[in-house]
Design brief:
The complex is a heterodimer of chains A (262) and B (219).
Chain A (H helix, E strand, L loop, with lengths): L2 H12 L4 H25 L8 E2 L6 H9 L4 H13 L1 H22 L9 H6 L7 H28 L7 E4 L8 E4 L3 H45 L4 H28 L1
Helix pairs in contact in A: 1-2, 1-5, 2-4, 2-8, 2-9, 4-7, 5-7, 7-8
Chain B lengths: L2 H12 L4 H25 L8 E2 L6 H9 L4 H13 L2 H18 L13 H27 L8 E4 L8 E4 L3 H46 L1
Antiparallel strand pairs in B: 1-3, 2-3
Classes of the chains: A mainly alpha (262), B mainly alpha (219).
């Protein structure tokens, strides 16, 4: 059980995302989770062992480390990634619920059901409309909130995104004021700025996706209203064309992401 | 043999659960198991090495650490995760028993072996009660062993062979306290989910029973 398991869970959601959603997922896995696991964990690995204070007073190092790092960067990032990935599960649950309903209809022998067998239902890709649209949009909204909260918590806890080389500590039992030296401060600053930058890109992608969904929603509504007035049959042809275009875009993106995941 | 086993067990359980049960599995997977493995284990990794006492007396640090941490937080956490996931096995076994019976007698004995009714409902309710029970027991254990859910920076130790009273310092005290609170919060969330599922199932099946009887009486 590790990040790989999260990747498996979220991979399923990929099929039902928009193109921007798929880009977001790719950025999340490659530039955040993978960087965290292969690079950042090594940089922060020896953080307490190599945190050195200029004193022989036992306990001073422990207390100063605890004072300056109430919660380590690496742990905050891991929590941020877990919380930010979780709203996608809402979409996965909604899709699973819809599939379950369709399977139930199919088993009852409902004439309305257009599928030939259970396998087709399992492989079907749902369009983001109706209640699924609301679930999807809420999940993006929660993602944005979590990202912003964690970025703020980071900024608030560490007074900016720089890691200083030297920290002055006067917590008891340290005698007077003691100089404490952080290990690898420059490397840590570089990775911190990198992670913040990628977080910001993810926030922008989420905002773009939200705007795209809202625009699509309002366009669809105004089209429906317009069509109902003038051409009751015309909307089907237009929608079919749009469907085909969407399928083409999403399939090409899916191929890119499948290539990455395999 | 590792946490992957627990993950496979929980995935299996997911198939036979109600909607709330699936949310419970997701919460345990992501907010408890995943957080434990990728975050918490690293915080408590060197807790003994980093535990420092203000003395040169050999053996004092060992004795004080043992006195203040009879069972480490991280081990209690792991035990809690295992104990809380295991009652779901009862449901898995019961479904397997039902399917076995159908194959053995070569006829359809149940409407659907996986549907939660009759004996399977009892098993499901028992597993929910056990899960909730284990959660509460472990929370109480944490509270009693560590005097609340605090992790102090400094503890005063006067166990032999330490001379008089010695100051001992716990490493990463604040971080440990934050994650302990996180553990408590997720435990409470799981208790709430279990109790909701329990009430939902009891309500649903009592209503069903009552309606059946009402229809029978009026026929």
């Amino acid at each position: 059980m590790d990040w790989g398991a999260l990747h498996t869970i979220l991979g399923g959601v990929n099929k039902h995302s928009t193109s921007i959603g798929k880009i977001w997922l790719t950025v999340l896995f490659i530039f955040r989770i993978m960087i965290l696991v292969v690079a950042a964990e090594r940089v922060w690995g020896d953080e307490q062992d190599d945190f050195i204070c200029n004193t022989l007073q036992p306990g001073c190092k422990n207390v100063c480390y605890d004072h300056f790092f109430p919660i380590s960067h690496i742990r905050l990032w891991a929590l941020q990634l877990i919380f930010v990935s979780t709203p996608a599960l809402l979409v996965a649950m909604h899709v699973a619920y819809r599939r379950h309903e369709k399977k139930r209809q199919f088993r009852k022998g409902d004439q309305k059901c257009e599928f030939k067998d259970i396998e087709e239902i399992r492989k079907q890709r749902f369009r983001i409309e109706g209640s699924l649209w609301w679930t999807y949009t809420s999940s993006i909204f929660f993602r944005l909130i979590f990202e912003a909260v964690f970025m703020y918590a980071f900024y608030f806890m560490y007074d900016g995104f720089r890691m200083p080389r030297l920290m002055k500590c006067n917590a008891w039992p340290c005698p007077n004021t003691v100089d404490c030296f952080v290990s690898r401060p420059t490397e840590k600053t570089v990775f911190t700025i990198f992670m913040i930058a990628v977080s910001s890109i993810c926030i922008l992608l989420n905002v773009a996706e939200l705007c795209y969904l809202l625009t699509k929603f309002f366009l669809r509504r105004s089209k429906k209203a317009g069509n109902q007035k003038h051409h009751p049959n015309h909307e089907n042809k237009e929608e079919t064309k749009q469907n085909e275009m969407n399928e083409l875009i999403s399939d090409s993106c899916q191929n890119t992401v499948i290539g990455f995941s395999s | 043999m590792s946490w992957g086993f627990l993950r496979d067990l929980l995935s299996g359980v997911n198939k036979y659960s109600t909607g709330i049960g699936r949310i419970w599995v997701a919460v345990v997977f992501i907010f408890r198991l995943l957080v434990y493995i990728v975050v918490a284990e690293n915080i408590w990794k060197h807790e003994h090495d980093e535990f420092e006492c203000n003395t040169r007396q050999p053996g004092c640090e060992n004795v004080c650490f043992d006195h203040f941490f009879p069972v480490s937080h991280i081990r209690l956490w792991a035990l809690q995760l295992i104990m809380v996931s295991t009652p779901s096995l009862l449901v898995v076994f019961h479904v397997a028993y039902r399917e076995n019976r159908e194959t053995h007698h070569n006829q359809k004995l149940y409407k659907s072996p996986r549907k939660i009714d009759g004996g399977l409902l009892c098993t499901y309710l028992i597993s929910l009660i056990l899960k909730t029970g284990f959660e509460i027991v472990f929370l109480v254990l944490f509270y009693k062993l560590y005097n609340g859910f605090k992790v102090p920076r400094l503890v005063k130790c006067d166990v032999r062979p330490c001379p008089d009273t010695v100051d001992c310092y716990i490493s990463k005290a604040t971080e440990k306290m934050i994650f302990l609170h996180f553990l408590v919060a997720t435990s409470c969330l799981c208790i709430v989910l279990n109790l909701s599922e329990l009430s939902y199932l009891i309500f649903k099946y009592s209503l069903k029973c009552y309606l059946k009887r009402y229809i029978k009486e009026h026929q």
